[in-house]
């Protein structure tokens, strides 16, 4: 950082700079900021999450830049914001230089950076720097007069404001940052690239229609988070992913929609059924102008059925993990939409339309589904230690001294285990799970959510019955509210099957199935761990329902011991209500054709 900029100086000076660039003592960040900017005002931006585990976002304005910090208390959020504001001082010996570098020109381009009389913060900075260098140094003045600093100023002065893009600016602030391609998403006509930029020990991702745009967005995110810089004269507006907005903004928006809906359904989280570990929801976008997304369904839950309650007639819900219930709710929603085409019903507005050849139906152009999960799905997506990356500065993922106990077992199929936490790998050899075995006391094994998501990314979310009427329905994006790691998430939901499936599905061009690569994203303010005991209930809601349905995950029935609306039997009834009354995809099944 600063040390590198001064390369070529004499050793003593370089040494001093390295010390200057050292980490800000977190506990003193507020005190330091107050010294530099007495009375800097902090503002509460938002408060999300349940009462017992809220997440606060605080904001402070310094040098006309906004710095946001988040935390489980207002104090912590303030501290984070102050740290970011302070870092912006540390990156630049003089704040005016920072603004010039960004082409935002709050000062005239001819301003004398080295002048102490400048309206900028150089004087204040000096006291900050002398604090960090033990009180003996002369601080910012030295840095400004150093050779490296002059050269930088020359470059800044010779460039017109707005000429620089985030990639250039990030590179000027942090020399030699590394970009890695994480992967590609989507089909030929709509490809999305994911890039990662590593700045010190932190990683930021960005997506875009080209590698260049993805790189641009990754750098933009890094600048925003590290330095509170977000304004650039963007020349890639038209290329921004997902409805013309930055992917991170869209991801945060999806999360907010689901959290808000959950708040509405739980009386502002005051209902006893607001207690949860994991919340998931599906947002639908139609692509119409002004449509910012609608929550179709949501569910909470982290448990599975007790083996003895398995139902032979499909009257129990076996898997009450939130994201798994969401798939069933989406199917329920799609059945609702299909029922609008039953004969003798007055014409309605549906998100579906008949196929042009009269066989079955399809989603209208532009209709997309986005899954939000408050934490990464159980199974392969969670096989990593979230703190590893922080101690492995500048290394590629392969070089990381990975200490996760399951690191050798990545990419494997895994199962949830009855009355146990977490998942275990599927045994290649060994006994096959049988019903009578489970009834005699073997622990019931249920497919992990990572594995189910992988399956949905190949077969779609609609299931075999609904597939009589609809081609595969895929997720356009998956947004994860905490414990998100782009690399592990990508492997967990499609990466591990890509090598074998791409060859088979991609080349033939015959199959209606494909390997779906949804856009993957975390949120900018990850939610904290939900405190308290895991609730022994799971709730679900779908558009058109009045309130929440509450399931006891141990029995797979509702609280009143009735079958849930999401049982296999309920789904089959939905199917039967359409059978033979609307046109099916496969015309050879004449019986499924609608009567003329
Ligand atoms: Zn799960």
Q: What is the strand and helix layout of this fold?
A:
Layout: H1 2-5, H2 11-20, H3 29-36, E1 42-48, E2 55-62, E3 65-71, H4 74-91, H5 95-101, H6 122-132, H7 140-145, H8 147-158, H9 166-173, E4 178-185, E5 192-199, E6 202-208, H10 211-227, H11 241-244, H12 247-265, E7 279-285, E8 294-300, E9 302-304, E10 319-321, H13 322-339, E11 352-354, E12 361-363, E13 368-373, E14 414-417, E15 423-425, H14 435-439, E16 445-447, H15 449-459, H16 463-466, E17 477-480, H17 486-495, H18 498-508, E18 519-522, E19 538-542, E20 549-552, E21 557-558, H19 568-578
Parallel strand pairs: 13-17, 17-18
Antiparallel strand pairs: 1-2, 2-3, 4-5, 5-6, 7-8, 7-13, 8-19, 9-10, 11-12, 14-15, 14-16, 19-20, 20-21
Helix pairs in contact: 3-4, 9-10, 13-19
Bound molecules: zinc ion.
Residues 321, 377-378, 449 line the site of zinc ion.
Textual characterization of the structure:
The protein has 596 residues and is an alpha+beta fold. It has three domains: 1-159, 2-Layer Sandwich (Double Stranded RNA Binding Domain), CATH 3.30.160; 165-239, Double Stranded RNA Binding Domain, CATH 3.30.160.20; 242-586, no CATH class. It is built from 19 helices and 21 strands. The protein has helices at residues 2-5, 11-20, 29-36, 74-91, 95-101, 122-132, 140-145, 147-158, 166-173, 211-227, 241-244, 247-265, 322-339, 435-439, 449-459, 463-466, 486-495, 498-508, 568-578; strands at residues 42-48, 55-62, 65-71, 178-185, 192-199, 202-208, 279-285, 294-300, 302-304, 319-321, 352-354, 361-363, 368-373, 414-417, 423-425, 445-447, 477-480, 519-522, 538-542, 549-552, 557-558. Strands 18-17-13-7-8-19-20-21 form an eight-stranded mixed β-sheet, sandwiched between helices. α3 crosses α4 (74-91) and α13 (322-339) packs parallel to α19. The longest helix has 19 residues, at 247-265. The chain is globular. 43% of the residues are buried. The model is unreliable at 1-27, 91-162, 233-242, 389-400 and 590-596 (pLDDT under 50). The structure holds zinc ion (ZN). Zinc ion (ZN) binds next to loops. Zinc ion binds next to loops.
